[in-house]
């Protein structure tokens, strides 16, 4: 049984998709959570209301995590609102997909700044709190394309691969204080991001997945909740794929 009672958890990019499901799952299991959004305040408030309607506790804080100062204020505010910080979930991310020949510099920069630099910004500011927490946890959302690559996603793949290296380095740097650092590498998950794909592309993806379906955001949330719990206190430096066997 996963129990997150007394856990104080910050989830970046949690107004929708995988981040929202992670926040809802963790709150349902007893955690106090802080939701973060960059632009979608209404949607973040909807997630907060859903959590509270189910008996949980949630806070909402706006921040563009690609900006170091805003990330610092986000972490500071989350800590103050919750009275602690046990777990940081670096989930926020965007895509700007194009073949490299057509990719603009701004497409590269935007993805790297949010998806990778944002992880540095938030972790750098949260580390002092995680080190003080009992069984602190760092959970980073990578992707199978950060392991295998994917045509048209040089920027996204590079950022997600960077998260893998960052996660493993944090596992070595923070372990002496009992903080575990792990990454989740989802495959194709049914979210608004994958809704934008054409039916032909979706069919092609499903052909590559032994389970013959897209994953669910709730399934990723289940894994994140496990990694945040004391059940996972001896799991450190791992990159756990959740892709239906696509990368097997």
UniProtKB/TrEMBL annotation:
It catalyses: a (3R)-hydroxyacyl-[ACP] + NADP(+) = a 3-oxoacyl-[ACP] + NADPH + H(+). Pathway: Lipid metabolism; fatty acid biosynthesis. Gene3D superfamilies: NAD(P)-binding Rossmann-like Domain (3.40.50.720). Its EC number is 1.1.1.100. Homotetramer. PANTHER family: 3-OXOACYL-(ACYL-CARRIER-PROTEIN) REDUCTASE, 3-OXOACYL-[ACYL-CARRIER-PROTEIN] REDUCTASE FABG. This is 3-oxoacyl-[acyl-carrier-protein] reductase.
């Amino acid at each position: 049984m996963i129990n997150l009672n007394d856990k104080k958890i910050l989830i970046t990019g949690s107004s929708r998709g995988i981040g929202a499901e992670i926040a809802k799952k963790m709150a349902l299991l007893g955690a106090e959570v802080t939701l973060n959004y960059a632009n979608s305040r209404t949607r973040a408030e909807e997630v907060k209301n859903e959590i509270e309607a189910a008996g949980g506790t949630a806070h909402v804080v706006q921040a563009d995590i690609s900006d170091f100062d805003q990330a610092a204020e986000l972490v500071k505010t989350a800590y103050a609102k919750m009275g602690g910080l046990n777990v940081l979930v670096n989930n926020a991310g965007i895509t700007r997909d194009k073949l490299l020949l057509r990719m603009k510099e701004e497409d590269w920069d935007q993805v790297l700044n949010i998806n990778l630099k944002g992880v540095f910004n938030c972790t750098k500011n949260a580390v002092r709190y995680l080190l003080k927490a009992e069984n602190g946890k760092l959970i980073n959302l990578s992707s199978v394309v950060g392991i295998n690559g994917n045509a048209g996603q040089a920027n996204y793949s590079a950022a997600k691969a960077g998260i893998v290296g960052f996660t493993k380095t944090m596992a070595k740097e923070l372990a002496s204080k009992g903080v575990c650092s792990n990454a989740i590498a989802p495959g194709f998950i049914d979210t608004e991001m994958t809704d934008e794909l054409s039916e032909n592309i979706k069919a092609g993806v499903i052909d590559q997945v032994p389970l013959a379906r897209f994953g669910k955001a709730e399934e990723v949330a289940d894994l994140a909740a496990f990694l945040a719990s004391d059940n996972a206190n001896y799991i450190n430096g791992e990159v756990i794929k959740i892709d239906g066997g696509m990368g097997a």
